[in-house]
């Protein structure tokens, strides 16, 4: 289960929570049946806690929210997208190590 620092983004709240955020946002596109998604979930929780207040971290369930992944060209999961000021700064597909996740986040800080 996601930590309290990990937000749930949906097709309905994505614009407000992500695109209009005043701090960078790390978005994890995932699904319950995805083994690599489960593998990186603890890393997502960890960086959400470590970067609290500096970066908003959240997840989009691609099965429950198909419009948002479609809009961002998400073809494989997990896909992690870094958004700052409403624009995509970077995007990584697959289960990545914590160091790569931190390097991605640091691009926005």
Kindly describe this structure:
This protein is α/β, with parallel strands linked by helices. It has one domain: Glutaredoxin (3-Layer(aba) Sandwich), CATH 3.40.30. The chain has helices at 14-19, 35-50, 67-71, 98-106; strands at residues 6-9, 25-30, 56-61, 79-84, 87-93. Strands 1-3-2-4-5 form a five-stranded mixed sheet. The longest helix has 16 residues, at 35-50. It comes from Geomonas paludis.
Q: Descriptors for this entry?
A:
alpha/beta; Glutaredoxin; five-stranded mixed sheet; 4 helices; electron transport; Thioredoxin-like_sf; Thioredoxin_domain; protein-disulfide reductase activity; transport
Task: Furnish the topology, listing elements before pairings.
Blueprint (H helix, E strand, L loop, with lengths): L5 E4 L4 H6 L5 E6 L4 H16 L5 E6 L5 H5 L7 E6 L2 E7 L4 H9 L3
Parallel strand pairs: 1-3, 2-3
Antiparallel strand pairs: 2-4, 4-5
Shape: globular
> How far apart are the first and last residues' alpha carbons, in Å?
27 Å
Quaternary organisation: single chain
Radius of gyration from CA coordinates: 12 Å
Tally of DSSP helical segments: 4
Strand count, sense and barrel status of the largest sheet are:
5 strands, mixed
Strand order of the largest sheet: 1-3-2-4-5
Spans of at least 5 consecutive residues whose pLDDT stays below 50 are: none
Structural class: alpha/beta
H/E series: EHEHEHEEH
């Amino acid at each position: 289960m996601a930590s309290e620092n990990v937000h749930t983004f949906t097709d309905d709240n994505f614009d407000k929570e992500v695109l209009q955020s005043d701090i960078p946002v790390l978005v994890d596109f995932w699904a319950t049946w995805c083994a690599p998604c489960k593998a990186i979930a603890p890393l997502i929780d960890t960086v959400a806690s470590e970067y609290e207040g500096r970066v908003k971290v959240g997840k989009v369930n691609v099965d429950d929210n198909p419009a948002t992944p479609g809009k961002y060209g998400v073809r494989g999961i997990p896909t992690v997208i870094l958004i700052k000021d409403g624009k995509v700064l970077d995007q990584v597909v697959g289960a990545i190590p914590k160091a790569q996740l931190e390097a991605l986040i640091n691009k926005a800080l």
